[in-house]
Amino acid sequence: MPDVDKSEYMAGTEDLATYRQTGIHAVQSTPLVSRGGKVVGMISPHWSRPHEPTERDLRLFDILARQAADLIERKRAEEELRESEVWLADQRKALETALNGGPLETALGILARTATAVMGGAVRAAFYLANPTEQRFTTLWAWAPNTVKQWTASESVLNLWPAVWHRTPGSRSSPRT
User: Fold this and answer.
1) CB atoms within 10 A of CB 110
2) How wide is the angle at C-alpha 44 spanned by C-alphas 42 and 48, nearest 5°?
3) CA angle 89, 137, 126 (to 5 degrees)
4) Pick from 162, 157, 164, 163: which is nearest to 175 by CA?
5) SS3 letters for the chain?
6) Rounded Cα distance, 22 and 1, in Å
7) Could you tell me which residues are beta bridge partners of residue 15?
8) Global pTM exceeds 0.70
């Protein structure tokens, strides 16, 4: 936008008022697009007087946008890698706990904490052990953020046996048959 004051698009907007208050008179925006085609941001140079970028300026902005998009994409990939490394380390810790004779509750607790940390928010996790004899589940271990405890699930959860067993791939029999 070579002159924000002459832009029909900006007329009467809060953005125009903000631009005027901050001394911005020209804006040019270039999207930051990842190599996979996903928009990851935008670069917007601002000028203190009306200005139209030259073709050379626009090429330089495109190069800068490519570099910035690559940096953002790399940073996000590094963060995802760190998260997966934590996830795998916790899974390994849970497996080692179980293999070294530790209580099953401890190993499952580690897995539940890891899962809820990765999912974020107010996610809770619980492990229910199948009791085929009684055709119901029993709560083994449950975890919620800031609350580590075992609790007893409601009867409606514990009695989900028929619905879960019926949907289990490869099950040889079902309480419904």
Assistant:
1) 22
2) 170
3) 30
4) 162
5) CCCHHHCCCCCCCHHHHHHHHHCCCEECCEEEECCCCCEEEEECCEECCCCCCCHHHHHHHHHHHHHHHHHHHHHHHHHHHHHHHHHHHHHHHHHHHHHCCCCHHHHHHHHHHHHHHHHCCCCCEEEEEEECCCCEEEEEEEEECCEEECCCCCHHHHCCHHHHHHHCCCCCCCCCC
6) 16
7) none
8) no
Contact 135/165 with Cβ under 8 angstroms?
yes
Q: Token pair of 71, please?
A: 């940096």
One-letter amino acid for residue 46 of the chain:
H
pLDDT one-digit tens code per residue, 4-25: 999 998 899 999 999 999 999 9
Type of residue found at 126: A
